[in-house]
Design the sequence.
């Protein structure tokens, strides 16, 4: 993430911070190797204060592509995947550089490395673009990780909000998605209480806790 006390939220697309980015990436690889995690979120970073987004967009993209190619080369030695996550600039972070799956997909195409993937957070995607069914179908080949939270409160999937998560989960199954779904939300209560939605979903699918089939038992 860079120097968060100085207002940074990633460095990969920030001009002039390439050396710090590479140092941070090496630290991330060190930790990922230690805990056996094969995926690293490569945070793009924020548009620098006092600059116009449109005016610096080209330079930031060039920096991003350069850093991503370096990332892909380093991660290939570790058999790891680098992930790009679009973060909405309407609510969460007005200055974040990478905002939509379309933007991320275009950058991934320019970089052209198979060990870089899209980290699709449906919370951000819904706020920026909606059209989740079509976006999931379109970008499935690029997706390396999915994250969820209800919109707009960013709480549990069964909290009041815009998204029909039982439908989304069944859509992911029908599309053949086999990766992880990360629960990146703020529980309204404690963690265990907040996982009630998952138990209810398992039961609706004829599964026991842990996702095992009752029929198999």
Sequence:
């Amino acid at each position: 993430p860079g120097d968060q006390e100085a207002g940074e939220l990633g460095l990969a697309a920030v001009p002039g911070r390439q050396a710090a980015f590479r140092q941070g990436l090496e630290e991330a690889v060190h930790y990922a190797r230690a805990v056996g995690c094969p995926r690293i979120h490569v945070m793009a970073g924020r548009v620098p204060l006092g600059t116009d987004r449109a005016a610096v967009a080209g330079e930031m993209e060039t920096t991003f592509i350069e850093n991503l190619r370096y990332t892909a080369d380093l991660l290939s030695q570790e058999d790891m995947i680098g992930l790009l996550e679009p973060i909405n600039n309407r609510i969460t972070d007005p200055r974040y550089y990478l905002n939509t799956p379309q933007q991320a997909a275009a950058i991934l195409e320019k970089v052209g490395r198979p060990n870089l993937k899209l980290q699709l957070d449906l919370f951000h995607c819904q706020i920026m673009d909606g059209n989740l069914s079509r976006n999931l179908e379109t970008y499935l080949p690029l997706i390396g990780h999915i994250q969820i939270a209800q919109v707009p409160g960013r709480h549990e999937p069964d909290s009041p909000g815009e998204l029909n998560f039982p439908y989304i989960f069944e859509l992911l199954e029908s599309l053949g998605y086999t990766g992880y779904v990360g629960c990146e939300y703020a529980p309204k209560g404690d963690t265990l209480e907040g996982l009630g939605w998952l138990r209810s979903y398992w039961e609706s699918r004829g599964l026991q806790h842990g996702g095992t089939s009752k029929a198999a038992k």
Remarks:
- The beta strands are 39-41, 81-84, 116-121, 143-148, 181-183.
- The two ends are 45 Å apart (CA to CA).
